[in-house]
Specification:
Elements: E1 22-28, H1 36-46, E2 51-57, H2 63-72, E3 77-80, H3 85-88, E4 94-95, H4 97-102, E5 107-111, E6 114-118, H5 121-132, E7 142-145, H6 149-160, E8 165-170, H7 173-186, E9 191-196, H8 202-206, E10 210-213, E11 238-241, H9 251-258, E12 262-264, H10 267-282, H11 288-296
Parallel strand pairs: 1-2, 1-3, 4-6, 7-8, 7-10, 8-9, 10-11, 11-12
Antiparallel strand pairs: 3-5, 5-6
Residues 81-83, 85-86, 121, 124, 146-151, 170-172, 175, 197, 214-217, 219, 242-244, 266, 269-270, 273 line the site of NADP nicotinamide-adenine-dinucleotide phosphate.
């Protein structure tokens, strides 16, 4: 027997759609947890734009077909999320510098069939960090957990800000080394370190200022699987978890809070990367406060 279709509450049921509506998708797997549809549709509505933003669950093997579908169905554009940011970069007609430098795409713009890839994650991360805490970048060494699309964007954004030393810890050591090589190529003076998940990393945590979780771990709240010695965190650390979703702190942020560290959750980055994507698709000024409210009222 088929399950009943999901029902909306009445407050949510007011997106305008007609024959002229421009479509924006978000390609990901999983994608049901994403708050971008709520945030972007609120923004289009507030700005009086006839756009609609839809979640599109796309399996890895079907990414090329899905990207081609954006062109065939004349979507105005898309966001790209886990696990497609890196492979998507290979499938587009051209890449803006933000995407070329990181090798990862989180935003696609379709101009009359020509698909251009951008990356607004790095700028979104820096804007959110600046809003949440005060950081002296040139003296802040960083540890990044993960080496996927989000990790690449954060690593490059921090290097652009002058962070002198970045350690990458990742399950697949080859990918951590790949990100290290990318950093060394773009920023020859940077000290970059690549470490596997199983290696001991206490000293890296102790000697860092900034810790960023850019893995998808923690989405299920399971701290045990996080490759980080949380007992080494102190009041001097800034801990950022890009994972968002549930109410309250993620497991990492809860542990860091206990140690007195300064915290940044994933919603600020989601807001600022989304605002930059909105501008790329519409050329209009993003209604930031409307977008923030849409995220906070989840
Ligand atoms: P991705 O490209 O698929 O990368 C996933 C990363 O997580 C890889 O480093 C992967 O390691 C690691 N990972 C996945 N499962 C793991 C496991 N079981 N054990 C250990 N490591 C594991 O994804 P992404 O686009 O970078 O996104 C990563 C996370 O950041 C997601 O939770 C996403 O929602 C979040 N994010 C948030 C924002 C925001 O605005 N707040 C923006 C971007 C991303 P391997 O290399 O070994 O596979």
């Amino acid at each position: 027997m088929n399950a009943l279709p999901p029902r909306l509450n009445r407050k949510e049921a007011k997106v305008h759609i007609d024959g002229k509506t421009r479509l924006i998708g978000i390609l990901g797997d999983p994608v049901a947890h994403s708050l971008s549809p709520r945030m972007q549709n609120a923004a289009f509505q507030a700005a009086g734009l006839n756009f609609c933003y839809v979640p599109l669950r796309v399996k890895q093997k079907q990414l090329p077909a899905a990207v081609e579908g954006l062109r065939a169905m004349q979507f105005r554009g898309a966001n790209v999320t886990i696990p497609h940011k890196v492979p998507a970069a290979e499938l587009l007609d051209c890449l803006d510098r933000s995407a070329a430098r990181t090798g990862a795409v989180n935003t696609i713009v379709n101009d009359a069939g020509k698909l251009t890839g951008y990356n607004t994650d790095g700028a979104g991360f820096i804007a959110a960090l600046a809003e949440a805490v005060s950081v002296e970048f040139p003296s802040a060494t960083a540890v990044i957990l993960g080496a996927g699309g989000a990790a690449r964007s954060v690593a490059v954004a921090l290097a652009e800000k002058g962070v002198p030393r970045i350690a990458i810890i990742n399950r697949t050591l080859a990918k951590a080394r790949g990100l290290k090589a990318l950093l060394k190529l773009e920023f020859p003076d940077i000290e970059a370190v690549a470490v596997g998940l199983k290696e001991k990393c206490d000293d890296l945590i102790i000697s860092s200022k900034l810790l960023v979780n850019a893995t998808s771990l923690g989405m299920d709240g399971d701290l045990k699987r996080l490759p980080v010695a949380v007992d080494k965190l102190t009041e001097g650390h800034i801990v950022c978890d890009l994972v968002y979703g549930g109410p309250g702190d993620t497991a990492l942020l809860a542990a860091a809070r206990e140690k007195g560290a300064t915290l940044m959750g994933g919603l600020g980055m989601l807001l600022h990367q989304g605002a930059a994507s909105f501008k790329l698709w519409t050329s209009a000024q993003p209604p930031i406060e409307v977008m923030r409210k849409a995220l906070e009222s989840q």
